């Protein structure tokens, strides 16, 4: 009933084709990706290299002083294995300079600031390298809102946005992402020992099943309970999806004219491409 | 001659770019001519691209448009089925497929069933066609059903009773769901079932021309195919890559299928009509 396995051979062709097609249509030939050392950004880099060739993929490693050294080692493993170009840009000076004025800021504010600092660097490099920013957000975190709006959620094109986290792992393994990266506990790496699953309160295996049934198969709450899922868990997941809807949409525009952007002024993004 | 060589153009049209797509049609036709095809079938909306949204009115063409002149000329060398947005004198826009032969448009099919659910929004932009007709083409008595039309068995049934030997379906089908281990897209599998089922149930050839390429992230899966009246696959193009699929069809196969399975002979129009009229009268639909 719940089959999150993948035809990796075909999917890989579809996603590499997506990157080639959308990058070229936008008039580019290169991509730049923020490489954290985690499985998502590693897979994006692998797909980018497969689609455009290693010489057309730039990886930016952007550690903060509290980032785990292991993360950078893993990112460097990917750079080396793929033979892509890379640069290390520390974000500590920029982030710390800002929070000197706001020393009381909590982890959430600091984490968001780091994610957005990285975003500005990626988009500056987009202009510098004439490269599109390749996204790394998967479907699980997009649906749960487990990402920073205009931070790690920002990109030009995202090959992973319709793959659940457990599917990202499968495809990553299939494409040869180092096993140490595929197997480690996912983490936003904002402080030592942080893991996604601890913060979210459930495992990706659990939540991917509920999300798949809820989103892809259109199960109602009652259907999910009948399928044997715990009500509190299901309600918690649904609450997160609903509460984060705004993150998946453009900012709301107050409608006053006869034709409003994205409401009744509707063109495909590939308009004229 | 009961054998014909036909070709299906599994191309990737550019969204909203008539000129570029016209050039792509001409290039593809040259190759089909070189490979001795009598007919070349392009996918749904092959001249315009599929997810047009508000571009619809900008790329719509009256069938008298000089823009179609080059295709008319080309059709003196090879029959063509081309997809476009047709604009009528009443300023209605149709998702249409035209059959060009010897410099003339000899048949127009306007898509009857406009999908407006999920990723589709056709009824927002387009008018519904109201006719399902067979016509005499260079490869025999044919009917064109565009994409979603094929998901309504009543449409194929009408065409069959109208004398269809060859069912031609230009399509722009984006792959969705079901990419599990060892499987292709769920809707691609459904298409492959439909094509084979129709070939067998209506004892006809099915020519399914699906496009490839991407629009706003959606991937058209290709997999164009020619299915014989036996349900056997005559030829099949690869998934997600461009191709010109060339195959032979043989009307003796239609004859043999109808001798083995005289389904068309035994069709009961009177029963069907009576029951349909009853259902309509009773207001169930």
The number of helical elements of chain A comes to 12
- Name of the top-level CATH class of chain B: Alpha Beta
**How widely separated are the two ends of chain A?**
40 Å
Q: Count up the domains of chain B.
A: 1
Whole-angstrom Rg of chain A: 19 Å
Strand order of the largest sheet of chain B: 5-4-3-2-1-14
Number of helices of chain B: 8
Average pLDDT rating of chain A: 96
The largest sheet of chain B is: 6 strands, mixed
**Within the CATH hierarchy, at the fold level, what is the topology of chain B?**
Nitrilase/N-carbamoyl-D-aminoacid amidohydrolase
The percent of residues in helical segments of chain B reads: 25-40%
**Can you give the mean pLDDT of chain B?**
97
Q: What is the CA-CA span between the terminal residues of chain B?
A: 45 Å
Largest interface: A-B, 25 and 25 residues
What is the CATH architecture annotation of chain B? 4-Layer Sandwich
